[in-house]
Amino acid sequence: MTTTTYDVVIIGAGPVGENVADRLVQGGLTAAIVERELVGGECSYWACMPTKALLRSAAALRAARQVPGAREAVTGDLDVAAVLGRRDSFASNWEDDGQASWLESVGVPLFRGHGRISSDRVVEVTAGDGTTTTLTARHAVVVTTGSGALVPDIDGLRAAAPWTSRETVAAKEVPGRLAIIGGGVVATEMATAFSDLGSSVTMLARDGVLHLAEPFVGERVAESLRDKGVSVRIGAEAGSVKRNDDGTVSITLVDGEQIDADELLVAIGRTPNTQDLGLETVGLTPGAWLTVDDTMRVVGPDAAPLGDGWLYAAGDVNRRVLLTHQGKYQARAVGDVIVARVKGEPVEDDRWGRHAATADERAVPQVVFTDPEVASVGLTAAAAEAAGLRIRVVDYDLAATAGSSLHAEGYQGHARMVVDEDRKVIVGFTLVGPDVAEMVHAATIAIVGEVPLDRLWHAVPAFPTVSEVWLRLLEAYGR
Known about the structure:
Low-confidence stretches: none
Number of strands: 21
Shape: globular
Radius of gyration: 24 Å
Helix content: 25-40%
Largest sheet: 7 strands, mixed
Strand content: 15-25%
């Protein structure tokens, strides 16, 4: 056993952990990082990058076929092998040499193995060969272990070895029939991707399609999936699952109907990767989400920081927002606040302060790369009302903008602006339509900056672009 001391020890070398480490060393502290799998984490190998690579080729082909002139130049179908090959390249063929080298280049030592908190500020790392290294932190330990796919207690499901998001994204072959339990982001994106790749897809969406978004979002995405041939079964619930001798899967619904498929994807949510992290040594429950304050310091049941506040958690593991970009946002705040506390500098943890992750509650942007795309930021109308805001909802047909008719024939889309009537600022914005992903950041800036509607009249959208919807929404609102 060897023992080494650093200013900060980070457990988890995904994008969140990497960003924490980067901010710490930029601030003059030393940091070590622990990783039991691949450096770069879920996003790099099984989520953000490879999933979008699976989706992009078909999206580009659809876009070409929606524009006369380009449509006539498209003479073939999607090359599935090329799509999977491009996916592999974006996943770095599931090798992490590049990201491990980056850690070395910024002066952050990597300890490969399973990290476990053994006492205050002490992390024991067990390598694959059984050797143990003890890392002691002078100031803080940061947990950035992320989340894993949740597999529910459905009779026979675990024994049937279903796909989770990992197996689906890394699939070497496209199944002839794919069943999906779930109707959220992973479910709808993978239904889009695999139907484009040639699978016959059945989606069992017990709670609806993208049911946490504005209602029109799920309606449009479900309609599009059905147009692709996907069987979207809203309200359908799996009662039991069986893996058959021939390798196929049979799903029996609670109403007795049976659905057969070659593979089954379970995409109903996430669970924290805290099962064997040593949380019991600090009075917390193994396998539980970690509750944090706005500076990502872990707090106990009394909402007070544990001990003298040496334990932090950023990213999925704290359940604030399970999105990579928000986890990296939290990571920047964590790294900077630890540096400030170590150096005795002021901590800016008030609303929109440098060390507070205010956007987690007020301005979370998200894109769902379905067909059509969904881009949103801030609160839905229902969430704004539930928060006690006096709101006005303004809707506009994206197809009515001049830019949409140039963008694609038969363009269909919708925009919604949610306005806080007392402050006259936007608190929520949702777009659904072809290629709307790149439009969401303007709304993010408007919400974070709390730009008054009167000032937004002076943000003139370029003509002819789909962004002209901003002017049309303001006109619909009335000056």
